[in-house]
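Hi team,

Filling in the usual template for the complex we talked about on Friday. All components are listed, including any nucleic acid strands or ligand strings, so the model treats them as one assembly.

SUBMITTER: L.P.
PURPOSE: interface mapping
COMPONENTS: two
RESIDUES: 544
SEQUENCES:
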Amino acid sequence: MTRVACCQLAPVVGQGEANVAMAHSAWTAAVAAGAELVVLPELVTSGYVFASAGEAKSVARRADDELWDTWAAELAGSRAAVVAGFCEAGDDGRLYNSAVVLDATGVRAVYRKAHLWDAEKAIFTPGSAPPPVVDLAVGRVGVLICYDLEFPEMPRALALAGADIIAVPTNWPRTERPAGEHAGEVVIAMAAARVNRVAVACCDRVGVERGQDWNGGTAVIDQSGWALAAADGAVTVAAELDLAASRHKWVSPRNDVMADRRPELYGRLTGP
Amino acid sequence: MTRVACCQLAPVVGQGEANVAMAHSAWTAAVAAGAELVVLPELVTSGYVFASAGEAKSVARRADDELWDTWAAELAGSRAAVVAGFCEAGDDGRLYNSAVVLDATGVRAVYRKAHLWDAEKAIFTPGSAPPPVVDLAVGRVGVLICYDLEFPEMPRALALAGADIIAVPTNWPRTERPAGEHAGEVVIAMAAARVNRVAVACCDRVGVERGQDWNGGTAVIDQSGWALAAADGAVTVAAELDLAASRHKWVSPRNDVMADRRPELYGRLTGP
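RESULT (copied from the run log):
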């Protein structure tokens, strides 16, 4: 079993150093408590509700920022990995809403969010590469960021590429839901897990920022689509997952959810 | 608003005439109560747990069975449509797990389930055509059958092809779920509705059949993914839906869930 932790933090927009310190404190505590995969929120080092591209630029970091080397060095001797959202300053001068995957050997991947939400479109450039599946000591970790998960093609592609778990740094703006229901984004994450037989770890944020509140919908979801740990006010949400279970796709004696696909049918529909 | 009804019946395997009478009674009552789209369970005229292909054949009907003409004639003067699962005897001598779409003008479509569940593989031939979107007076109705819905490509394709609502005749074998959760299949249906901004009407069955129990998970789901009516023991579950809402895909001032797709990225992942 693998202990997966999500640290549902409350970053403050523009407070780069304080956010980094908070994120560092949270992930090191989670690793000390036995977590082998720690997921942090989207844009955790920068905050989210930027007033301008200039403000975002002021707290942006490069994909090879020395912060990542510092964090990786602290993982020396551990199998653990950290997935963290950050505001990326690209070599091309553009800003990306990115996530870094780190382990003891350093930066293993940087993924740039491909589907931008609302005002992000005024700040960030969407990524042009598909999301990665990173073969780590802990297992094969796929990465998506927030709204990416609402495109079912994305978790499907990661599962088909062999992901054991999909780590999803997210900032889910507060949405309405009927009493007794999970947030709509959590329903989507649960279904993505179940149809693909892949674990999903969504790390949301909290803390009202320039009037924007959040769902606080952090969830560690198993391959059957059930949330094993919900936040309920805790900063760090952790659960034990059998990541090896993602490597078979059997759901009945005669049904394998991937072998049963009929891709020859999926592209043949056109409008009426 | 359009009244959509699902009749969560308890067919008995092999009792073809009694099942037809029960289904007829249920859909005519639903139409009399104002429903303009009525969905009946998968294999409602035949029952589900067949002991053999021979038994299935004994209760099979053709796509042009006179029963459909009889039912369609009763819809004369009405905008209403009925979607019903049945055991189809194909011209090719094979059996299909099919659904018929009827309105006052007659049979509008027959869809053959493309993804077969478990022992169905020993009885039925999977369909070789994509699911239809039928342009009815009540709106554009897409059709899937049970396990089809667990392939996210299927509701996606129907939504891209312009479906306002997806009608899903189903027989969901009883599955375990944590306290307070919907059945896993309902979670999948809710997510399919939400990510595609399309209504979904799932009509499950009840009635233990040869030891097999069912989820009884009938749900009429709106374009935000919320179940507006759950079965709770009622035979017919009905809700008012704004089907026109499926024709825009806006979820924020700058986000349209279809226009935001990045299909150029979805096929580029390969295994690690």
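MY TAKE: Chain B has one domain: 2-266. The longest strand of chain B covers residues 81-89.

Thanks, L.
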